Design the sequence.
């Protein structure tokens, strides 16, 4: 979506601040509060705070229609359903298997497979069917072109990497590795289909263009993040290096050494059964 | 029956990660004889914007983490100031490079519009990355837990 420089009244900016950007900040703040505060009920209060933020972001296209950034809120509202279905489905499949704690009933496995499959079909329907997120009739939400190729190509890459890692590190993990190769292959097939089959609102050429932009995006995010982590490490390293060396203490005396060896000797060995 | 393991190498991991985009490139070259759909100028603009925005946002996040680091060290100011300047440098560099003209200015009309677009774009990309990581890790975990329970203490039982 193009954000064009135009003279906006202060009111519109304030509305965008209160109804879009503050809710955006509420999500990480709420999660951080729920995880870190030692207060009683902090967890539920933090989650409620974050949830309120998510709801406000999702309705921002209606509350702040003048701000082009709210197209991201529109996309969030469109994809939150299938994404939650996929993630909850995977959770059900995982914890209905052989896990030592938090085991779910075996029947949840089928439900999990159903939910995950339905979630993926829903997302595919957004590309090849009538479910495409649209800001107005026939105007596809621009951020969908960012989310969809990034998600599909990264899933394929990570699944392929995971499959090879299982083969290299795991002991007798060929079956699991094959499952990951299948996931990678399925994601790759969706990519190939997207590159060759037009949807009702998204052409194969558009998808191809945005796929390579997603790759450029992923490369940029990797470089930028690594750079900032490097700078962070450099700052900590410089600070730690500037600290004076800790005071060294005098070596232990004969009597201290004797006491230590007596203590060690009394704890060595074991009783015969 | 024992399966032979592959030798662990980072190169192999990296190759496995890059395999899908490399395959698409290979298919494109085979069928079309060129890198179809890649506009190097637009891709470079996106790469640069993503790098600058990721650096800026990641530095901000790490700056917040320095408060926790300082908690165990009597809150020293030096690393906080250092990281603040590193973050500020990112912000200044972003504004400077976007302000240079059409190089980093995508379809937006001003530096502020482009900067806001970059941040929102980064949120969407990060969301896609998080969901993809959730799917990949979750499916790996579910593939492991769906196998029969293993007994690693065969010798003890004997």
Sequence:
């Amino acid at each position: 979506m193009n954000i064009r420089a135009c003279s906006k009244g202060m009111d519109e900016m304030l509305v965008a601040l209160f109804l879009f950007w503050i809710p955006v900040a509420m999500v990480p703040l709420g999660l951080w509060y729920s995880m870190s505060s030692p207060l009683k009920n902090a967890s539920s209060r933090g989650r409620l705070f974050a949830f309120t933020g998510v709801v406000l972001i999702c309705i921002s296209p209606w509350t702040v229609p003048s701000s082009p950034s709210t197209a991201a809120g529109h996309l969030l509202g469109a994809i939150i359903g299938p994404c939650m279905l996929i993630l909850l489905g995977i959770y059900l499949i995982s914890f209905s298997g052989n896990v030592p704690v938090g085991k779910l009933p075996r029947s949840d496995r089928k439900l999990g497979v159903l939910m995950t499959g339905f979630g993926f079909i829903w997302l595919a329907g957004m590309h090849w069917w009538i479910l495409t997120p649209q800001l107005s009739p026939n105007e596809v939400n621009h951020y969908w072109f960012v989310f969809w190729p990034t998600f599909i190509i990264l899933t394929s890459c990570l699944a392929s990497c995971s499959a090879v890692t299982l083969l290299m590190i795991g002991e007798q993990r060929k079956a699991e590795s094959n499952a990951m190769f299948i996931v990678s292959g399925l994601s790759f097939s969706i990519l190939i289909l997207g590159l060759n089959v037009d949807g009702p609102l998204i052409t194969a050429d558009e998808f191809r263009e945005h796929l390579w932009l997603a790759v450029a995006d992923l490369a940029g995010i990797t470089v930028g993040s690594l750079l900032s982590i490097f700078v962070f490490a450099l700052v900590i390293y410089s600070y730690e290096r500037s600290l004076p060396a800790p005071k060294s203490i005098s070596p232990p005396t004969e009597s201290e050494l004797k006491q230590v060896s007596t203590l060690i000797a009394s704890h060595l060995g074991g009783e015969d059964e | 029956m024992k399966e032979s393991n592959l030798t662990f190498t980072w190169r192999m991991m990296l190759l496995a990660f890059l395999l899908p985009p490399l395959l698409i490139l290979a298919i494109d070259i085979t069928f079309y004889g060129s890198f179809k759909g890649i506009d190097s100028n637009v891709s470079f603009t996106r790469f640069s914007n993503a790098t600058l925005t990721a650096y800026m946002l990641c530095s901000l996040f790490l700056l917040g983490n320095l408060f926790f680091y300082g908690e165990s060290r009597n809150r020293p100011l030096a690393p906080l100031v250092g990281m603040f300047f590193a973050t500020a440098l990112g912000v200044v560099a972003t504004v400077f490079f976007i302000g240079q003209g059409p190089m980093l200015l995508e379809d937006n009309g001003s530096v502020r519009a482009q900067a806001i677009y970059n941040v929102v774009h980064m949120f969407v990309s990060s969301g896609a990355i998080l969901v993809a990581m959730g799917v990949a890790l979750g499916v790996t975990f579910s593939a492991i837990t769906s196998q029969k329970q293993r007994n690693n203490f065969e010798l003890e039982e004997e």
Observations:
- The CA atoms of residues 26 and 46 of chain B lie 23 Å apart.
- The radius of gyration of chain B is 23 Å.
- Residues 39-147 of chain B form one domain.
